[in-house]
Amino acid sequence: MDINVARGLVTVALLILFLGIWAWSWSRKRMADFDAASRLPLEDGENSPASGETEETPS
After folding, report:
1. Are 50 and 44 in contact (CB under 8 A)?
2. Tens digit of pLDDT per residue, the chain (59 long)?
């Protein structure tokens, strides 16, 4: 087997892997998870430093 054949096979394998990951990430059953993750930086959580409350530790 020539090195160029090996390089071609690796290229094809990586292309198939890329297309598989792309299809997985755009599938409808993953949409809810990704939408929830995209809203995380905008939500005001109880433990977030932006809420104005800081936890003080006794010295």
Report:
1. yes
2. 899 999 999 999 999 999 999 998 888 888 888 888 889 998 887 655 555 555 566 66
Which whole-number Å values give the CA distances from 9 to 6, 12, 17, 18, 21, in the listed order? 5, 5, 12, 14, 18
Element (H, E) at 56: none
Q: Running DSSP on this structure, what letter comes out for residue 38?
A: H
Pair 28, 22: CB distance under 8 Å: no
